[in-house]
TrEMBL record:
GO cellular component: extracellular region
One protein family per Pfam: PTN_MK_N
Protein name: Midkine
Stored SUPFAM superfamilies: Midkine (SSF57288)
UniProt source species: Cinclus mexicanus
């Protein structure tokens, strides 16, 4: 019975310590943070070339901040790295242009980015013919 009481007391102490640690973390974030709520963020600017690690600048009234950011090296430059789209499947190959097309609908605009609601992308048709004879 004493062992059970001791374990219960130990568990309560651990829960209290965890709650206090979480509270301190929140207070620290408030001290480091700003009271301003209307931040305007610029685009992510890579440190070198056109992709990789970089920073974005934000302003709110008289305050300004820089945040670290990353532009994936396979991003669609036409849309910007802060515009996320849900794309449908590729359409058929156009015999006239030799291109496939698909559209994407805006899923999320990060950091108040100005994004188009619908975008269209094209790519050259594959010259390879895929066989479906595997497993048949």
């Amino acid at each position: 019975m004493q062992v059970r009481s001791l374990l219960l007391l130990l568990a309560l102490i651990l829960v209290a310590a965890a709650a206090e640690a979480g509270k301190n973390r929140k207070e620290k974030a408030k001290k480091d943070g700003s009271k301003c709520e209307d931040w305007r963020w610029g685009p992510c600017v890579p440190n070198s070339k056109d992709c990789g690690l970089g920073y974005r600048e934000g302003t709110c009234k008289d305050e300004s901040k820089k945040l670290k950011c990353k532009i994936p090296c396979n991003w669609k430059k036409k849309f910007g790295a802060d515009c996320k789209y849900k794309f449908e499947s590729w359409g058929g190959c156009s015999a006239q242009t030799g291109l496939k097309t698909r559209s994407g609908i805006l899923k999320k605009a990060l950091y108040n980015a100005q994004c188009e609601e619908t975008v269209y992308v094209t790519k050259p048709c594959s010259s390879k013919i895929k066989s479906k004879s595997k497993g048949q």
